[in-house]
Amino acid sequence: MYKMKKQNIHSIYFLRIFAMLMVILVHVTGAYAYTLPSGTDAYEKYHFINRIIRIEAGIFIVITGMVFFYNYIKRPLTLSVLKNYYIKRVSYILIPYLVWAIIYELCSYWSGATTFNPKEVLVRIATGESYYQLHFIFLIVQFYLFLPVFVYIAQKWIFFRKYMWVFGIAVEVGYSLLNTAFQLTTFTIFVDSLATFLLGAWLGVYYQDQQGKAFRKSNVVWMICTFGIGTITVLLSYYMYTARTLDLPDITYKLSNLTFMVVGSYTAFLVAEMLAKKFSQRYMDIVKNIAVYSFGFYLLHPLVLGVVSKIIPIEANMTFHFSIVTRYILVVLLCYIIIWTVHRYTPFANLVFGKLPKKAVFLYERKSSVVNR
Length: 373
Known about the structure:
- The chain has helices at about 10-30, 30-35, 40-50, 55-70, 80-110, 120-125, 135-155, 160, 165-180, 195-205, 205-210, 220-240, 250-280, 280-290, 295-310, 320-345, 350-355, 365-370.
- It is built from 18 helices and no strands.
- The protein has one domain.
- It has about 375 residues and is mainly alpha-helical.
- The longest helix is centred in the N-terminal third of the chain and has 32 residues, at about 80-110.
- The two termini are about 35 Å apart.
- Helix 1 packs across helix 13 (about 250-280), helix 1 (about 10-30) crosses helix 16 (about 320-345) and helix 4 (about 55-70) packs across helix 10.
């Protein structure tokens, strides 16, 4: 029976924080697109910032593959294990997704953005289109559904296990070409992000080997490559799809972005491992107590950003930069306070924000609370 307690992967907490802070920054800085005059210096700079940080989705997906392969690769996939696995996924992922899909559907209806049509509502919920960030949760649900299949293949086929990330890249590129040619699907499907998922799976399987690479001098090369490939990807995005002055096949951007996601996510893992080994226990506790709310941040932040945007207007002048920074700080702080409050004072926080610790700790546990327990 599988009873051995495995080593905790502390770098996961940093990866979660990287991803949640990046996704909020993407959506906050996105105001440039409808505020700043197109083609201006400020517009181009904010376009660069907004695009160069878009590895957050890749990091989230890497975390998914990494955590579950690390925990399940040596476990026999018995009926009881699978039953427990799917029950937890329904409780911690599917129910919160449905809750927030309904919340955002109601917000859209009340704001006049949509009309109430039960059939259209159900279609949007079923395809992750109720609000712009929910398509990603819909994608994660798909990965969770098929994850045991990939674990089983990795357990039985050593070659696949050893080169999972290569298989992921090959399948993702192949699917992209087929979908472009034949329009196989019109909604987000997990195969379109398989490279980062299987990269995470590979990191989970070979974690003991990979964590030792955190302090190699070659990591500087990984960082430079990430920035270089990211810059190329941003420029392709701008000149192909915004300025429309560069006419290249879509697969050109796809390959560049895919490389950026894979290289960038792996580099983020190395940086996270480095930080995890450098931080003291006190600071690691703070990191952990923030990171456990990362899923909640992802679900909640558009709602908070909508409110903050009404409080802090944004204009195409020198105050634009100040407004962006202020919005960002407020959204991050308010999200944390709201999630912590729900966690601390309600019994249903897990149904709203996914799996949470039993105890709600605000940043770090004070000595007095430890003594009085």
